Amino acid sequence: DTGVSQDPRHKITKRGQNVTFRCDPISEHNRLYWYRQTLGQGPEFLTYFQNEAQLEKSRLLSDRFSAERPKGSFSTLEIQRTEQGDSAMYLCASSSSRDGLLNSNQPQHFGDGTRLSIL
Amino acid sequence: KNQVEQSPQSLIILEGKNCTLQCNYTVSPFSNLRWYKQDTGRGPVSLTIMTFSENTKSNGRYTATLDADTKQSSLHITASQLSDSASYICVVSARNDYKLSFGAGTTVTVRA
């Protein structure tokens, strides 16, 4: 399978604990995105990487959230001191920008997400 | 206010029937519009993408239309199947911006 892979698929943890999610994008994709999705809503943008550089962070990404993409390949999203409001599906997507355009017509390919439940 | 509005929020149709989903957007300047299908518990999967100059695009039993003047798009599902039960999300890109604007989705339930 050469799609976007996310791990774990489900995470249940107690409030106050730290959690870390991993995303492995499609290998030739240089762009990687993190989104959060709650029930009945579309995904909300969290952050964006081009290669290893984190180019933008949404205001939704409080200081308890941190994302990395150290070698420009896989990425991790860490949430510290989790709160009940953090319960959501966390989606990762990747795309290619070989055409050099800031906005590429290449679609973003999504993983199946990590569903986080805070008890 | 969300820049992408979808309607209806949900609908139920009988297997074999057709249905049409609507998407209105205010994203500007417009670059492209995508429809994604999201099965329960899965990530969204791209169905179609249309740029400013394209009016219609098909992917099997899915046909998307775009009216860039009125900033409206529709997704038509022909001869629905049980596997079409999913959320359909309209996603719009602005020129010179990598961020996407997502609608809240339309949940389609196909019943036998």
Number of strands of chain A: 11
H/E element order of chain B: EEEEEEEEEEE
Shape by Cα distribution of chain B:
globular
Largest two-chain interface: A-B, 25 and 28 residues
Word description of this protein:
The complex is a heterodimer of chains A (119) and B (112). By secondary structure, chain A is an all-beta fold. In chain A, 0% of the residues lie in helices and 47% in strands. In chain A, strand 4 (31-37) and strand 5 form a beta hairpin. Chain A is globular and about 40 Å long. Chain B is mostly beta strands. Chain B contains no helices and 11 strands. In chain B, strands 2, 4, 5, 9, 10 and 11 form a 6-stranded mixed sheet that branches. The chains are: A mainly beta (119), B mainly beta (112). The interface between A and B is medium-sized, with 25 and 28 residues.
Task: Quickly list its features.
heterodimer; A: 119 residues; mainly beta; seven-stranded mixed beta sheet; four-stranded antiparallel beta sheet; 0% helix; 47% strand; globular; B: 112 residues; five-stranded antiparallel beta sheet; 11 strands
What's the gist of this structure?
Chain A has no helices and 11 strands.
